[in-house]
Amino acid sequence: MRFEIKFSGHENIRSNHQKTIEITKASELSVQGDCIIGVNATSACLDLPIFLKKKLQDSKSKIQISIKVGPHEFFVFGRGHDDLTLTHDEDIVIRKSDFVCPRTLAVKCDKTSDLIPREMVQLLQNPKTIGTFTIITE
């Protein structure tokens, strides 16, 4: 099962957070949003299809996230969680911890925004850059 979300870059993308990765439907970004790798996302947690939400809301589910920017692709592996609500209308966050809130898409992820290759981050600092955030479940 695959679901693709498009997003764009922003000049304030820093991608140096050590616990999360986030994309947002918001168009503006301050430098304090150091986990955010993309703005103007086409979907947030609330917008995900029901079939995908059911998979994400199962702690036995293995989740793969592919983040593609230009010629670069970055993979993150995580887990679903029984307590996910997936109700946030603006953001998607994947977490290294098992913390759950309405913005959480996956927990126990093996990578965070500080591990995204700097070549990708440089591309994402251009507002004209378009990236793809693909959610893959078994």
What does this protein look like?
- The chain has 138 residues and is mostly beta strands.
- The protein has a single domain (2-137), classed as Jelly Rolls.
- It has two helices and eight strands.
- It has helices at residues 50-56, 118-124, and strands at 2-8, 20-24, 36-38, 62-69, 72-79, 91-95, 104-106, 130-137.
- β4 and β5 (72-79) form a beta hairpin.
- How much strand? 25-35%
Which spans of ≥5 residues are poorly predicted at pLDDT below 50? Answer: none
Our count of helices gives: 2
Question: Got a strand count?
Answer: 8
> Biggest sheet: strands side by side, in what order?
1-8-4-5
Q: N- to C-terminal separation?
A: 6 Å
Q: By CATH's scheme, which homologous superfamily applies?
A: mth639 domain like
- Give the overall form: globular
Number of domains: 1
The CATH class name reads Mainly Beta
- Main sheet record: 4 strands, antiparallel
CATH structural architecture: Sandwich
The averaged pLDDT comes out at 97
What string, H for helix and E for strand, traces the elements in order?
A: EEEHEEEEHE
Radius of gyration: 13 Å
CATH topology: Jelly Rolls
Helical fraction? 10-25%
Class from helix and strand fractions: mainly beta
Sequence-ordered SSE layout with sheet pairings:
Layout: E1 2-8, E2 20-24, E3 36-38, H1 50-56, E4 62-69, E5 72-79, E6 91-95, E7 104-106, H2 118-124, E8 130-137
Parallel strand pairs: 2-3, 6-7
Antiparallel strand pairs: 1-8, 2-6, 4-5, 4-8
Summed up:
The chain has 138 residues and is mainly beta.
List keywords for this structure.
10% helix, Jelly Rolls, 138 residues, mainly beta, 4-stranded mixed beta sheet
